[in-house]
Amino acid sequence: MAEFTPQPSCADDVDHNNLTVEQARQRIHDLLSPISSWQKVSLRQALGQVLHQSVVSPRQVPPYNNSAMDGYALQSADIKNAPFSLNNVGVAFAGKPYQGHVEAGQCIRIMTGAKIPDGCDTVVMQEQVESDNQTITIHTDVKAGQNVRLAGEDIDCGDTVLPAGRRLTPADLGLLASLGIAEVVTYRPLRVAFFSTGDELCGLGEHL
User: Fold this and answer.
1) In the chain, which residue ranges form alpha helices assigned H by DSSP?
2) What is the mean pLDDT for each group of 10 consecutive residues in the chain (208 residues)?
């Protein structure tokens, strides 16, 4: 009677014909061809896609010198030892800048994000000011240039804000939208297919 020789199987402790995980990954990697084609997509379609081109800012952020506080904008040349008073001649909102020029001895009421008016370079927060609408009195020391965000302080025109190869996140889309960018150039997404062998499987919604 011939001697029985068991065949290799999954029950064996070690199958020397099997690849390690690292070897299998390397073989798959060696067969892959990187995607080189690209497409232009709107921000609404860009989440999770990978940038083909770096995004360069077309504008400054902030776009102009603006107030970091609700308070009063004034000229640094008018700063004196506290307390000192100035004439309030107007108001500036974030969406409605003050149109005039602020002269010596004057100030304007200013809201957070509003453009610093001509003639001003310093903002005093409202909590440090006593006001009767026509005149303000400042009761604290003031430093020239305080509470002012300079144009381009966060992003300058021409800065690279997102590099090529970056996978776009929700925060990235918010940044792009704030810069007025409506479209980006991304790599074409992967096309993925799968198949099954065996007739015991059925599709979603089919009778089990």
Assistant:
1) 21-31, 170-178
2) 73 73 92 90 95 95 94 94 93 94 95 95 94 90 95 94 96 95 93 78 83
